[in-house]
Amino acid sequence: MKEVLTNPTDGYYINNNVFGKNGDFITSPEISQLFAEMTGVWLVNEWQKIGSPKPFQILEFGPGRGTLIDDILRVFKKLKLPMDQINIKLVEVSPKLCEIQEKNLCGSSSAPVLASICYKQNTTRHGSQIGWYRQLKDVPKKFSIFLAHEFFDALPVHKFVKNEKGWREILVDFDREGDQFRFVVSRSSTPALKIYSKFLPASSPKEAEISPQSILIARDIARRIHEEGGIALITDYGHDGTKGDTFRGFRNHQLHDPLVDPGTADLTVDVDFSLIKKAVSEETDTSVLVYGPITQARFLSGLGIEQRLQRLLQNSSAEVSKDLISGYRMLTERDQMGERFKLLAFFPKVLQDHLTKFPPVSFT
Ligand SMILES: C[S@@+](CC[C@H](N)C(=O)[O-])C[C@H]1O[C@@H](n2cnc3c(N)ncnc32)[C@H](O)[C@@H]1O
Predict the structure, then answer these.
(1) I need a surface site. Which of 48, 170, 292, 360 has the fewest CB within 10 A?
(2) Residue 364 resides in a domain
(3) Residue numbers of the domain that contains 206
(4) From ligand 1's centre to the CA of 63, what distance in Å?
(5) How far is CA 121 from CA 59, 105, 115, 198, 239, in A?
(6) How many domains in the chain?
(7) Is 245 within a domain?
(8) In the predicted structure, residue 20 carries a pLDDT above the cut 80
């Protein structure tokens, strides 16, 4: 999964613009401005509640086309936040998407400095400094707002199944002719099984997907929040440890066998939010307060998405109104993205008393 998605020369994300009607999938920020506006309002509210610390950085993982952060910055500017004291740090592996993000966010293109850990720098149209990094560990440690929207679902997993011999890892092999990949169940224990067995479910389900990179990144975010302060908001499709076999491909908005023509389709899993929670709660010396997961419908309605929609409809043409309403439905309806998408938030433990009195909006 890692090679197929992020191989430096042939990875699916590395060279492709994978979004929208001509791509393979579409995400909430691309569906409607309402999503980023509500997220922006939530962030400003939570940031103000803890005393509006400045300067601060927004660190977004896998920003896609940059639409979420661009719309959030528009909200921040409208609410008169000090844009010159906000630093944007984007963690992105794809040079192609980095180019698109820079064009959308800055309206200009800067020369990449490939030898540097901050491989591109510019200023956004909203007046904030912006820098691009390949991995979290390269980003300076500071008070940060962490955003991960449809990022964790792209991180590679190990798959396991429980049979009569106990837990076994599912591996990828060739068929006899050697021209087709296939899944096989390992006959004996594997290193990954030994390392990650403590994360496997005690009784059910009988299959599991464990993402080591998700565990490491979630712990790193928690550690940074503990040491420097900050807030994290993770949004993705996922479950609470109840599903074990969700690995799949998407091509042209259709399900696609992940073992056929690797590199031509997006590969993804439903995020196991219980695994992320377990990973950060085990770090006893750096533990953070974890809220959620809550559904996207609940998050957006707690922030007043209906009222915002009505407001926008007052000044919109018939065509724009139609798009706004269909976007709103897609984001919030139960059988669309309203229930399948969930949000998880981290706050520093020192805020426990404060957040008991003033809990994060929508999360209680
Ligand atoms: C499914 S897209 C989501 C894009 C965007 N957040 C959105 O919701 O529209 C995943 C994004 O994560 C990036 N990505 C995938 N694996 C990554 C990794 N290991 N490190 C950094 N970025 C990664 C991709 O290039 C892409 O920008």
Answers:
(1) 48
(2) no
(3) 158-210
(4) 6
(5) 14, 12, 13, 41, 36
(6) 2
(7) yes
(8) no
